[in-house]
Amino acid sequence: MLKSLKKKMKDQAGLTLIELLVVIVILGIIAAVAIPMVMSQRQEAEDNTDLQNLKLVQDAVNRFNAVEGVWPGSTDEVITTTELVPEFLNEIPTTCADGTTAAEFRIDGNGVVESSCVTTP
After folding, report:
1. What is the DSSP string of 50-106?
2. Which residues pair with 102 in a beta bridge?
3. What does the pLDDT look like over 6-59, one tens digit per residue?
4. 38: which of 47, 85, 110, 119 is 20 to 30 A away, CA to CA?
5. d(CA 82, CA 68)
6. What span, in angstroms and rounded, lies between the C-alpha atoms of 60 and 70?
7. Residue 94 confidence class, pLDDT cut points 50, 70, 90
8. CA separation for the pair 33, 42 (Å, rounded)
9. Is the confidence at residue 109, as pLDDT, over 70?
10. Cβ neighbour number for residue 85 with a 10 Å cutoff
11. pLDDT at 12
12. Which long-range contacts (CB under 8 A, 24 or more apart) does 64-72 make?
């Protein structure tokens, strides 16, 4: 019986329909698990980029205050590039990490910078 099975397998030229279906099902399961993981990592990376941009602008504002003795601009206005660029910051980010939303940075009376890209809980 083993010899006849080996001969039958040797004569087989390709995959059976069942074998193909099993492979397709396995690939579907892998895709169903992997795609949500990749998408959630992308959102997390965008959030981290926005937070890093906020910290970068906050650092430039703090350095401006240390040198000039005042906060840049007036309270609760959008921070402009003329106040911080090029001495304290190469450039102010103009878009959020999602690529569609315009980034605005505002400073309060205590020197705390807020970003339109970062939502605070």
Report:
1. HHHHHHHHHHHHHHHHHHHSS-SSSTTSBPPHHHHTTTT-S----B-TTSSSBP-EE
2. 95
3. 776 666 667 788 989 999 999 999 999 998 888 888 888 888 999 999 999 899
4. 119
5. 14
6. 13
7. confident
8. 15
9. yes
10. 13
11. 66
12. 64/88, 65/111, 71/107, 71/109, 71/111, 72/107
Residue of 89, 101, 95 lying closest to 57 (CA atoms): 89
Strand partners, 95: 102
Q: What predicted TM-score, i.e. pTM, was given to this entire model?
A: 0.65
> Token pair for residue 116?
């339109």
Owner of token pair 């579907």: 28
Q: What is the 3-state secondary structure (H, E, C) of 91-111?
A: CCCCECCCCCCECCEEECCCC
Q: What are the beta bridge partners of residue 107?
A: 113
